[in-house]
């Protein structure tokens, strides 16, 4: 099974590759822009599934999805996103996408979704498509302060300390202090491990 992952966040992309290849029987390729994805698709041989990040450079949202679906012999293409709305997911499925995968999906569910779509089925998580405002708090989230969660979210998105500091309007040394505390609380030794733990827990 050959999977192409196109996402501009290095850490998230590497994490997805790690999870999928650990399953065995899955060969992955990964790129950071839509143009690079097109190059890979055209180079052949065909992928069983292509995962496109909704907001990466060159993607242009659903236009990129539609373009990718016309390449080669007609590729199976799914959207992956941490920000897309239910409406975007519905539009993607209506356009013929193989599925819609929220980045908040727990690791095991993500792997199962990829396998499901690669075998020809259409996937979208029922809880996402039918979600209301009544959400159950994640157990991992209860261990962290709001600021620590914001920093951890930045880590899972592959952002540097400087980028996280800028986004949260705080100083970079403050980000490092929050990281040290959240590492201890979640049982992580480094930023990659913290991101993996957060994804396993379905926090983001």
From TrEMBL:
Residues 2-118 form the Response regulatory domain. Keywords: DNA-binding, Phosphoprotein. The keyword Phosphoprotein applies. The modification 4-aspartylphosphate is found at residue 53. The keyword Nucleus does not apply. It comes from Octadecabacter dasysiphoniae. Residues 136-202 form the HTH luxR-type domain. This is Response regulator transcription factor. CDD domains: LuxR_C_like (cd06170), REC_NarL-like (cd17535).
């Amino acid at each position: 099974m050959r999977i192409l992952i196109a996402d501009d966040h290095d850490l998230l992309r590497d994490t997805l590759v790690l999870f999928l290849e650990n399953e065995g029987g899955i060969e992955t390729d990964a790129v950071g822009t839509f143009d690079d994805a097109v190059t890979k698709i055209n180079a052949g041989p065909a992928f069983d599934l292509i995962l496109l990040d909704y907001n990466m450079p060159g993607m242009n949202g659903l236009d990129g999805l539609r373009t990718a679906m016309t390449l080669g012999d007609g590729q199976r293409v799914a959207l992956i996103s941490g920000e897309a709305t239910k409406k975007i997911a519905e539009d993607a499925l209506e356009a013929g996408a193989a599925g819609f995968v929220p980045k908040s999906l727990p690791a095991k569910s993500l792997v199962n979704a990829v396998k499901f779509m690669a075998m020809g089925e259409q996937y979208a998580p029922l809880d996402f498509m039918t979600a209301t405002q009544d959400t159950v708090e994640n157990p991992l989230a209860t261990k962290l302060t709001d600021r620590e969660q914001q920093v951890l979210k930045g880590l899972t998105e592959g952002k540097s300390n400087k980028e996280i500091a800028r986004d949260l309007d705080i100083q970079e040394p403050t980000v490092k202090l929050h990281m040290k505390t959240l590492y201890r609380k979640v049982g992580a030794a480094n930023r990659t491990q913290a991101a993996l733990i957060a994804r396993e827990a379905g926090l983001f």
